[in-house]
Hints:
single chain
Amino acid sequence: MSQMITISLPDETRSALDDAANEEGLSENALVEKALSDYLFIRRFRNLRERLMSQGKDLNDQDVFDLVSGRSSWIRMS
């Protein structure tokens, strides 16, 4: 299910979005959706890495990436 949101962008950002969408061959909507999805993934990655490091877990970035991606469940996440 999709939901619509409305955002306001400064003129410079709006112009850069238009340029990037044209360069990528994507609609502005698709580019914003991809950018937001990427941002949220990176946010989850950073938060998980920080939490695991504070618990003294000895993990590298690939381990954390696999956990965030759902590719690994070898560590209890409580």
